[in-house]
């Protein structure tokens, strides 16, 4: 008679599945049971029984899923469904950019190009639908940028607020997360490399105001051009920073 597992009391099946497969099975379990973020997962012992694998295999899979923010391990309390945020994407893109020492400008330009394509498409969607009140709020953010620039105060958070507010009317929760991810990568890389903020904040203010002006005129093409000009400025700034040009 085959020996029963002392840990769980079930007859253990041969383990031939790789760690990645076990991770996918845990994710499928979450989906099948419709467990929302914050819900408790089955215990390790229950997962061992459900998946037919060892405790070590369960723990390895859960640790890997924790790194992806798919599960959250609270020591002493249990394991819960995570938020599935874009934090792993941000970490990966930041590392990828910093690791390309021979082509740092190109690596950062790739990220900016993806964000530019995303925003140029999004701005077409909101150009004809933004209300006067929403446009006024955007103008208010630009005014705060201008005031900060006059006082010599960097305003990266206002820049981020502008872009998130610009697409808020879409009601798409993924949009601000994606924009925030790309924004965070840029700021992290800039911080590590010691790049300074835009030496001409009035240029940044003007580019944002040009976007609002075009949107007020319901000029879709003009709004896209203004957004493209904005990104050309960011790319130029990044290229100058990597060359040590102030």
Architecture blueprint of SSEs:
Elements: H1 19-32, H2 44-51, H3 55-67, E1 71-74, E2 78-81, H4 87-99, H5 104-127, H6 132-150, H7 156-166, H8 174-193, H9 201-216, H10 220-243
Antiparallel strand pairs: 1-2
Helix pairs in contact: 1-3, 2-3, 4-5, 4-8, 5-10, 6-7, 6-9, 9-10
The number of strands is: 2
* SS strand fraction: under 5%
Number of helices: 10
- Could you tell me the radius of gyration in angstroms? 24 Å
SSE pattern, N- to C-terminal: HHHEEHHHHHHH
Give the helix proportion (percent range): 55-70%
Structural class assignment: mainly alpha
Q: N-to-C terminal Cα separation, in Å?
A: 77 Å
Strand order of the largest sheet: 1-2
Uncertain regions: pLDDT < 50 for 5+ in a row? 1-15
* Largest sheet descriptor: 2 strands, antiparallel
Task: Describe the overall structure.
The protein is mainly alpha-helical. Helix content is 66%, strand content 3%. The protein has helices spanning 19-32, 44-51, 55-67, 87-99, 104-127, 132-150, 156-166, 174-193, 201-216, 220-243, and strands spanning 71-74, 78-81. The chain has a two-stranded antiparallel ribbon. β1 and β2 (78-81) form a beta hairpin. α4 packs parallel to α8 (174-193), α5 (104-127) runs antiparallel to α10 (220-243) and α9 (201-216) runs antiparallel to α10 (220-243). The protein starts with 18 loop residues before the first helix and ends with a helix.
């Amino acid at each position: 008679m085959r020996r029963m597992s002392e840990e769980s009391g079930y007859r253990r099946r041969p383990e031939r599945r790789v760690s990645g497969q076990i991770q996918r099975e845990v994710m499928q379990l979450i989906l099948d049971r419709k467990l929302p973020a914050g819900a408790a997962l089955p215990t390790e012992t229950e997962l061992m029984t459900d998946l037919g694998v060892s405790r070590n295999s369960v723990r390895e899979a859960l640790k890997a899923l924790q790194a992806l923010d798919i599960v959250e391990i609270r020591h002493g309390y249990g394991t819960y469904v995570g938020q599935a945020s874009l934090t792993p994407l941000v970490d990966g893109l930041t590392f990828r950019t910093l690791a390309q020492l021979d082509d740092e400008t190109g690596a950062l330009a790739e990220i900016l190009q993806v964000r530019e394509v995303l925003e140029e498409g999004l701005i077409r969607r909101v150009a004809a639908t933004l209300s006067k009140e929403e446009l006024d709020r955007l103008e208010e953010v630009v005014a705060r940028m201008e005031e900060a620039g006059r006082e010599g105060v960097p305003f990266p958070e206002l820049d981020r607020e502008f872009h998130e507010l610009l697409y808020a009317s879409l009601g798409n929760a993924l949009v601000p997360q994606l924009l925030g991810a790309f924004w965070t990568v840029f700021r992290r890389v800039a911080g590590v490399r010691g790049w300074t903020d835009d030496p001409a904040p009035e240029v940044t203010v003007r580019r944002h105001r040009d976007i609002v002006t075009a949107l007020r005129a319901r000029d879709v093409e003009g709004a896209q051009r203004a957004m493209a000009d904005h990104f050309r400025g960011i790319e130029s700034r990044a290229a100058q920073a990597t060359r040590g040009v102030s």
